[in-house]
Automatic annotation (TrEMBL):
A GO BP entry: recombinational repair
Domain UvrD-like helicase ATP-binding: 5-299
GO function term, MF aspect, one: DNA binding
Cited Gene3D superfamilies: P-loop containing nucleotide triphosphate hydrolases
Keywords on record: ATP-binding, Helicase, Hydrolase, Isomerase, Nucleotide-binding
InterPro entries associated with the record: DNA_helicase_UvrD-like_C, DNA_helicase_UvrD/REP, P-loop_NTPase, UvrD-like_ATP-bd
Pfam families found in the cross-reference section: UvrD-helicase, UvrD_C
Source species, domain of life: Bacteria
Reactions catalysed according to its record: Couples ATP hydrolysis with the unwinding of duplex DNA by translocating in the 3'-5' direction; ATP + H2O = ADP + phosphate + H(+)
Source organism phylogeny: Bacteria, Bacillati, Bacillota, Clostridia, Eubacteriales
Top-tier EC class: isomerase
Record protein name field: DNA 3'-5' helicase
EC number: 5.6.2.4
GO cellular component terms, A-Z: cytosol
Amino acid sequence: MHGITPKGKQEEVMALPAKGHIVVLGTAGSGKTTIALLRSHHLANIPENGRVLLVTFNGALVEYMRGISKSRSAKLVVENYHKFARGYLNSRGKMPRWNGILSPDEKAYYIEQAVEELKKEHPAESTLRRSKEFFIDEITFIEKFGVADLAAYNEAERIGRAAANIKRENRKWIFAVYKKYIELREAAGRKYDWDDLAFYVYNELQDDENERRYTHIIVDEGQDFSPMMIKSLVDAVADGGSFTFFGDVAQQIYGSRLSWRDSGINADKVWRFDVNYRNPATITAFAKDITESEYWRQDGDMVEATAQIAEGPKPILVKFSNKPREMAWVVERAISTGKTSSTVIVCRTRADIDSFLRVLKNKGCDATEIDKDTPGYAHIKTVYLTTFHAAKGLEFDNVFVPFLTDDKLPDPDTVANAVSEEDAYIDEIKLLYVATTRSKYGLYMTYSGTLSPLFPEDSDSCDFHDEEEVE
Ligand SMILES: Nc1ncnc2c1ncn2[C@@H]1O[C@H](COP(=O)(O)OP(=O)(O)OP(=O)(O)O)[C@@H](O)[C@H]1O
């Protein structure tokens, strides 16, 4: 973080009084994480200020933030939402010691059981014959939105939902499944799942008369927080304190598609960071082509870059005749750029990461897998491996995105588990956007087989090559 001087709107946000609610939307690489960190340190260093919480979505980004912060402050806590939620519920004696939170598979199991029980009671009801995915998706919506009762559910607008056009008169059945699910899991001694933890945090805060722990709460990557997560954080701020939200709707990759605007944030003005300090103009142009795909869902909150600082080559897409050749090229190139720069290979699945790890090892390269225990990595010259999801918020000099084929992107499991194919495509194309905008210099994409439908194949901002042209 040394040597960064906030500029333009960044400087204006740094200077805002720490009171009330502040919203900053920004394009990729516009300094959201940087300003979130600088402002957190600034607030924590003011002697009369109370504690500051900087909260983000995934553990990898928490470690990254800790890595790039050169200073420490006893008054600043950096953690992800789930750690905050578990810690808070624990402090209130509401977190069981063991197995408090259902895994997604366990949640699916109890929802299926709930549907089966209701079917026995109401065998003629057709709504109960809808798919398991449908119920999981809808119950997750109820949880993330914090829908308290059937009346509120009937009122709740469904945002960005293509397939779940549920008639109002049938919503009572879905709500009944939700209620039954809660009943079954409670009977099994289980209190929460990952999607409704925030709902319980929020409810607990309503009854909590103790002084709030944090005076200032700052959220980075806020686009992936559910409305209930934001609501609970807004409520967790001490009287007279501040809540600041940083986000980029173009990078919303956890499938919630719910807006921060439904989260109880009350800001007079929305700040828009539109200078991209990370990506060269060549990459920004390519990323823009991704957003013009038929699968991209436009959103008025998206901020487009109006200026870039960095320079770099045009991205390339290379077609190979088979996968071993593709992997050999990616590995050789990544090892080569990894000697002088930070280099990452971004994969859709962990299985693909493992395949690359093996090939890299055979070539004598001990690549580092990025997870929540890998701090400050992006500044080290070496080869990293990560998933699309864990790459969010990070940056590297060179980014390789292999396996851009129709059987890998969109991920078939994600498509199979989605309510509709369209929903899955809308989420998966954002992964491509996130991965490509991680690069400070080079972007190398490859495939063998049929190109992914999510790739903007008419893009003028990418050079297309066959394998013999790059060997
Ligand atoms: N004022 C500035 N001067 C110089 N460099 C800056 C400035 N602001 C940000 N940067 C640099 O730009 C890069 C991107 O910043 P940062 O990661 O904070 O962006 P972001 O908006 O959080 O991006 P994303 O949402 O894509 O993860 C970093 O390398 C950061 O150091």
